[in-house]
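Recall from the previous chapter that SMILES is a line notation for molecules. Here it describes nicotinamide-adenine-dinucleotide.
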Amino acid sequence: VAQGVAPATVFVGFMGAGKTTAARALDPDAADADALLERRLGTTIAEYFERNGEPAFRAEEERLVLELLERARGGAIALGGGALTSSRVQDALKAHRVVWLDVDADTAWRRAAGPQRPLARDEQRFRELHAEREPAYLAAADAIVPDGADLQKVAAAMRDWPPGARLLWALAGQHPVWIGRGLLDTGHWPLPTRRFLVSDGRVARLYADKLEPLAGRVSIMPGEQSKTVAHAEIVWTELARAGMTRADHVAALGGGVVGDLAGFCAATYQRGVPVVQVPTTLVAQVDSAYGGKTGVDLPEAKNYVGAYHQPAAVLVDPATLETLPSEELAAGYAEVVKTALIAGGELWERVRSGAIADEHVIVGCVRTKLRIVAADERDAGPRQILNLGHTIGHAIETATGYARYRHGEAVALGLLAALRLSGQDALRTEVAALFAAQGLATQLTEVDPDAVLGAVALDKKRLGEGPVPFVLVRAPGDVRHGEQVDPDEVRAAVGELVA
Ligand SMILES: NC(=O)c1ccc[n+]([C@@H]2O[C@H](COP(=O)([O-])OP(=O)(O)OC[C@H]3O[C@@H](n4cnc5c(N)ncnc54)[C@H](O)[C@@H]3O)[C@@H](O)[C@H]2O)c1
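With both inputs in hand, we obtain:
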């Protein structure tokens, strides 16, 4: 943000995204660039376009938008859908906060199609334009707000925007995800009520003080072996002894183990209190902190007891990854690759060319996960694709008593098996090489394949007496759930992993 300028909050996005409405939710006096432009041109945009052509219109639009951005002192501005095609506008936006209202092409077409919009008359061209413009919106965005967001809640969150952070809005649970290096040093906290920390001993020593003031602190031993009903009882008891009430909330600080356990305890303590997730591992920052799945393991099977409980907010400080041991970073990389295979497109290209955990990768993974969860919060179908690699991965964890492999390490092996079952031999080779480069094992050692196959049969995705459905990859970006696989092929894919 340039010196001396009070940044405005500038709403961008495709036609039909609802930019003006969203800007007014934040600021009733928000400026609407299209309306101002029509006034200046003395005619409608459609007519001006018709008479003078698109280049002349874009020049007028650029001039007006640059003036608006130059003169802005705080407040909100809604830009026209194409304003970002100007590189001068893109530059000027760097001094402001840019909110991308992310609307899918179907919805946009439904809302915008018609004679009054010159670029919304031909459906195919409209859809092409939607795809063409996305990278510019994404590159400029300080916030990504998907269509369907509760604009009052979004506006309330934006009024307390932590310096330097990016906002991703989660539709499931209607909550903010703030991502920013150094976020935990800003003192930002999304809820005004008393916070009670749940963490593991290692993470608490490193970061708990950054979350002060804390009304109480509960710590468990680090590691998957703490994700049990017995540990949940310890947490409930400690929260009760610390005097936590329904008006208070849990701050879950740590990796996926803390997030799942603390989230489950928050879902059940006095029948439910809010939880703020503060993920500190790569697994948690790209995956487990979002989506509201919380729970604990049974000795028989993983994640067998739990509840859906969406967080009230998620605070992601990638700087915490600097203290993460390299094996833990590698374990998280397995979830990154999984998410990139699901997303396809730019995220997959970035990951396959060697990116591991930069902020772009984290944001890309979070966006992907939030989008899938929003489409199917309770796992009725589409959300199951997030279990890519997890059917055999979880079975490996169960068969080895949750002690031998980190969750991510088991997922890496499960992903390789899933790619074999998908008939994706070249992709399996490529992914195995990516894993090996991060020091992840691509073979199972000292594990009885029959124990793994036995655990596969207990997978949670199985319904009734039916076979265990698998998640398979047709291509990066095209992942299907509920696929039937021949048991002999499963045996072969697991057998291949055993060194
Ligand atoms: N709920 C979901 O949707 C979901 C998704 C994926 C995974 N999970 C679950 O997540 C769990 C795995 O999570 P995980 O891999 O984060 O493991 P974890 O929580 O056990 O953390 C790994 C280790 O890293 C340490 N650690 C954490 N942050 C650190 C930091 N910043 N610096 C130094 N050390 C740090 C922890 O103390 C721990 O020893 C599994 O139980 C898995 O089932 C849940």
